[in-house]
């Protein structure tokens, strides 16, 4: 979920028909804004969980608002802890390409010129291979099909490409796609956020991920963005170590739970 979508001072609730159609049950999303008052948000959250009609509510709140876990548990819904999202940031100027290393390894970054079928297939190949066994918040819920969760990542990436091909950065190895990052510019125009990023399994562990991040840095500077943001589940330590080596630092944490309507 983008950092911009988590901002605000209130508790918001909205339907998520794409997810509902994918998983075959009614789904809504609830977000407690980063600047909400914790005690007020706790009261609003319980009331919302008790009155909302969706079978599943995907609820997110700032992790430092520790009282909201007990508030959710006091509702009439079953609460499934799903994940904690860690948000990291880096000045765009830190993500500089190493042209010598790229040439030595036969690598280059590329931005698609259009959403043609070949580009979509390349995007889907990398996303499917990279996220196949990833433990996201959907996989915490036994009511949701794990394969359909992967389809959600594929759909998310494809919609980024269709919206604007420049929102996709590919890492190519000898003209074969081995990495992908999908992007969005923040509301204030200063942040470029990475929504999805990954490498195919065959090339992981070789230090190539840094080159993908550097390609994102190029896009950030081209768009006049001063900061790059990225997020992942707290358990994904390997990629967070890579971010730290690239100069990122953590700045936010968001808790996710699934609130299921009881039979």
TrEMBL record:
- Domain spans labelled N-acetyltransferase: 118-263
* Domain of life of the organism encoding this protein: Bacteria
**InterPro entries reported for this sequence:** Acyl_CoA_acyltransferase, GNAT_dom
Asked if the Swiss-Prot or TrEMBL record annotates the protein with the keyword Glycosyltransferase, the reply is no
User: What's one Pfam family here?
Assistant: Acetyltransf_1
- Record key words, sorted: Transferase
Offer an example of a GO molecular function term for this protein: acyltransferase activity, transferring groups other than amino-acyl groups
Q: What is this protein called?
A: Acetyltransferase
Q: Which organism is it from?
A: Intrasporangium oryzae NRRL B-24470
């Amino acid at each position: 979920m983008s950092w911009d979508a988590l901002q605000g001072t209130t508790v918001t609730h909205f339907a998520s028909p794409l997810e509902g159609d994918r998983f075959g049950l009614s789904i809504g999303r609830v977000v407690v804004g980063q600047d909400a008052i914790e005690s007020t948000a706790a009261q609003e959250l319980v009331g919302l969980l008790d009155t909302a009609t969706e079978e599943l509510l995907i609820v997110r709140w700032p992790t430092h608002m520790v009282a909201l876990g007990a508030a959710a548990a006091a509702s009439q819904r079953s609460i499934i802890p799903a994940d904690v999202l860690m948000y990291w940031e880096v000045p765009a100027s830190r993500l500089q390409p190493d042209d010598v290393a790229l040439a030595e390894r036969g690598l280059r970054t590329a931005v698609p010129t259009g959403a043609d079928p070949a580009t979509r297939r390349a995007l889907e190949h990398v996303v499917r291979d990279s996220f196949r066994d990833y433990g996201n918040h959907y996989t915490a819920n036994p009511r949701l099909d794990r394969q359909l969760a992967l389809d959600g990542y594929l759909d998310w990436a494809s919609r980024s490409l269709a919206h604007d091909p420049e929102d996709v950065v590919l890492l190519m190895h000898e003209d074969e796609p081995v990495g992908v990052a999908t992007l969005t510019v923040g509301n204030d125009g200063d942040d470029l956020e990475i929504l999805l990023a990954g490498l195919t399994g065959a090339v992981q562990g070789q230090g190539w991920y840094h080159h993908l991040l550097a390609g994102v840095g190029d896009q950030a500077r081209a768009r006049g963005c001063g900061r790059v943001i990225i997020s992942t589940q707290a358990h994904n330590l390997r990629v967070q170590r890579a971010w730290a080596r690239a100069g990122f630092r953590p700045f936010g944490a968001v808790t996710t739970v699934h609130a299921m309507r009881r039979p």
